[in-house]
Write a structure and sequence with these properties.
By secondary structure, the chain is of the alpha/beta class. It contains eight helices and seven strands; from the N terminus they run ββαββαββααααβαα.
Length: 229
């Protein structure tokens, strides 16, 4: 989450947030009022943030197909266990961790409640794992109260969970694919976008069957963000 020129800019995974943050820091850091990574919107319920409680929410979103394809390849790119891999990403086979196939990964990330209901022991392990990592204590993924982490905190798919935890109903959104320049003009920093997070290895593409599965789970996001199937 970034607060910049009296606007709150949530950072959704794989939606250009790292590039936006890097650009603001380089070109206009003096107008950044607050900056972090994937903070939940609920941090602003704290009285310490009363000064920005009425600021507009504005952010960049991505087509659900591109979101899942990019997130899978980004995590896989880092090789097995790394700073961002969780048990949603990995299988434990023959005494070692292996990154899941796209199909297995989608099954876990499109229906997270079902994944943790089937393997409830993983929920406790996951919160303990994230708690040990610097920078995760205040992210959308575990919420503010890490010690009060509950199964119901996982709702729906990975993308819908981000939207639930980061955006409010009135968030103004720009599509990453076609409206990044418009977004930068809107927040007051035109023609200053830096690139980041380039995939190093061969990108694994979604099949049509996988796209169909995503659409069935995240249909409401297609409608909310104005994307075609």
């Amino acid at each position: 989450m970034i607060v910049y020129k009296n606007r709150k800019i949530p950072h959704l995974f794989k939606c250009g947030g790292s590039s936006i943050r890097k650009s603001l820091i380089k070109y206009d850091s003096e107008n950044i009022q607050y900056i972090s990574e994937h903070d939940s919107k609920f941090i602003f319920d704290n009285v310490a943030f009363d000064w920005c409680k009425d600021f507009e929410y504005v952010t960049v979103v991505r087509h659900p197909y591109g979101f899942y394809e990019s997130l899978y390849n980004y995590h896989r790119d880092m090789d097995t266990i790394n700073a961002v891999s969780t048990q949603l990403d990995l299988n434990y086979i023959n005494g070692k961790f292996e990154f899941k196939s796209m199909n297995d990964w989608l099954d876990a990330n499109l229906d997270m409640p079902a994944f943790f209901e089937e393997k409830p022991y993983k929920l406790k392990d996951l919160s303990k794992e994230l708690c040990s990592r610097d920078g995760f204590q205040k992210t959308w993924f575990v919420g503010i109260q890490l010690n009060d982490f509950k199964p119901e905190d996982f709702v729906g798919s990975m993308y819908s969970l981000q939207v639930e935890k980061l955006l409010n109903d009135n968030t103004k959104v720009f599509q990453m694919e076609t409206q990044l320049e418009e977004f930068m003009i809107y927040i007051g920093l035109p023609n200053k976008l830096l690139k980041k997070n380039i995939t190093k290895n061969k990108t694994i593409k979604l099949t049509q069957a996988q796209k169909d599965k995503i659409y069935l789970k995240d249909k409401q996001l297609f409608k909310r963000f104005g994307y075609e199937r």
